[in-house]
């Protein structure tokens, strides 16, 4: 794939994934589980987002 297509698709995919995970974490924390019940999921979601950001950076900017 060209660099521009790779950048565009990776940005859209990352944005959708982050929106979904943050929304899911918010929904869990404000729902039945409450803040303390949703906190472990929020930590896991944050770690997953960091891994996705690293993969995005490596895929878009790391390759020569």
Topology:
Blueprint: H1 3-30, H2 34-62
Keywords: Membrane, Transmembrane, Transmembrane helix
Protein name: DUF2244 domain-containing protein
Transmembrane segments: 7-28, 34-57
General description of the model:
It is a single chain. The chain has helices spanning 3-30, 34-62. It contains two helices and no strands. The chain starts with a helix and ends with a helix. 89% of the residues lie in helices and 0% in strands. The longest helix has 29 residues, at 34-62. The chain is an all-alpha fold. α1 (3-30) runs antiparallel to α2. It has one domain (3-62).
Keywords summarizing the entry:
64 residues
- The tally of beta strands, per DSSP, is 0
Written as H for each helix and E for each strand, in order along the chain, the element string is HH
- Which residues form runs of ≥5 with pLDDT under 50? none
Largest sheet: none
Broad shape? elongated
Mean pLDDT: 91
Work out the helix count: 2
Number of domains: 1
Helix content: over 70%
What separation lies between the terminal Cα atoms? Answer: 13 Å
Structural class: mainly alpha
Gyration radius, in Å: 15 Å
Strand content: under 5%
Organism: Ruegeria marisflavi
Transmembrane segments: 7-28, 34-57
Protein name: DUF2244 domain-containing protein
Keywords: Membrane, Transmembrane, Transmembrane helix
